[in-house]
Design a protein that fits this description.
Elements (H helix, E strand, L loop, with lengths): L2 E7 L6 H9 L4 E6 L6 H7 L3 E4 L4 H11 L4 E4 L4 E2 L4 H9 L6 E9 L4 H17 L8 E4 H6 L10 H12 L2 E12 L7 H16 L4 H11 L1
Parallel strand pairs: 1-2, 1-4, 2-3, 6-8
Antiparallel strand pairs: 4-7, 5-8, 6-7
Helix pairs in contact: 8-9
């Protein structure tokens, strides 16, 4: 199995070095798809051994460009503030030994792990994933390359591009939730205004599920921040 890790970035100089180093311990290649960062994100990623692409800003199109450039027969999508341990490689290989499995995602722990907010969001994310199989791109996603393209990949939309693809993947069947290997991610989105942030995303998710335009939701989200 050849595994390609794809990391979309924008202004991530403080985190991209750790992200690429962690991905290189798992994957055969690391593709960083940068959305026009003006800091040292691209330079640091190259220094750590990643192939860096320069794309227009927008996570959906950045992910699609990274997947198009990747050479692996399995794709692993990671956020720049999320790190998997080295044993994640073996977990992916075990899951995909079953030809009926198309892909899956990992248990996600929010930092700081000892803070009440970190523990709360870790518990909520795990519960939702186990009961509803709802998760987003911050939970590292792996998928067979052929399946990724058959399902159309990530759409180039400004919000919920990960949810849109993951719903198609889950609907196609054959996914695995890897709970015995832990991904760690930053809780920076929830550090301030915890309840407001959570409430905003619940509203956005509900409106998107009801058919609201991702472009309109993205504008509302920017105004609400």
């Amino acid at each position: 199995m050849r595994l390609s890790a794809i990391i979309p970035t924008w202004q991530e100089e403080a985190r991209i070095g750790r992200a690429v180093a962690g991905a290189r311990a798992i994957a055969d290649e690391v593709v960083v798809s940068d959305g026009g960062s003006t800091d040292r994100t691209a330079a640091i990623a190259r220094a750590e051994g990643a192939l860096v692409l320069q794309e227009g800003r927008g996570r959906g199109q950045q992910l699609m460009a990274g997947a198009a450039r990747a050479s692996g027969d399995v794709l692993l999508f990671l956020h720049a503030d999320t790190v998997l341990p080295p044993e994640a490689r073996a977990a992916v290989e075990r899951a995909l030994q079953d030809p009926g499995v198309s892909g899956g995602n990992f248990f996600l722990r929010f930092e700081p792990r000892d803070a009440p907010v970190g523990r709360l969001f870790t518990w909520l994310y795990d519960l939702r994933c186990r009961l509803l199989r709802i998760y987003y791109g911050d939970s590292p996603l792996f998928v067979r390359t052929a399946v990724y393209w058959r399902l159309g990949g990530f759409p180039a939309q400004p919000l919920f591009e990960d949810y849109a693809f993951i719903r198609r993947l889950e609907g196609s069947g054959g996914t695995v939730y890897v709970r015995d290997v832990e991904a760690v991610t930053s809780g920076r989105r929830y550090e301030n205004h915890v309840l407001r942030t959570l409430g905003t995303w619940v509203i956005l998710q509900t409106l998107y599920s009801l058919g609201a335009s991702p472009a309109r939701l993205a504008r509302w989200y920017v105004d609400a921040r």
